[in-house]
Amino acid sequence: MVGKKRVAIVGAGLTLFRRRMKETGKELSYEASKMALDAAGMELGDMQSVVMGTAPDAFDGVHMKGEYLADGAGAYRKPYTRVFVGGGTGVFAPLAGWWHVASGQFDSCLVVAEEKMSSCYPHPQYAFTTIFDPILERPIGMNLIWIFAIEMHRYMHKHGIKKEDIARVSVKNKGNALDHPCSQLGAKITVEDVLNSEIMAWPVQRLDVSPTSDGAAALVLVSEDIAKEITDNPVWIDGVGWCIDSTHWTNRDLYYPDYVECAARMAYKMAGVRNPPKEIDVAEPYDPFDYKELHHMEGLLLCKKGEAPKLTAEGVTQRDGDLPICPSGGLLGVGNPIAAAGLMKVCEIFWQLRGEAGKRQIPGDPRTGLAQAWGDLMQYGSVIVLRR
Amino acid sequence: MSEKIKHYQGEALKSEDIKEGRVPTEKFRPKVKFAWSVGIAIGKFLEELKKGKIIASTCSECGRIMVPPRIYCENCFKPTDGWKYVKDTGTINTYSISYLAADASRLKEPILVAIIDLDGASEGMGIIHRLGEMDKNEVKFGMKVKAVWKPREERIGAITDIKYFKPIKEETP
Question: Which residues lie closer than 8 Å to B23 by C-beta, 6 or more apart?
Answer without folding.
Answer: A22, B13, B17
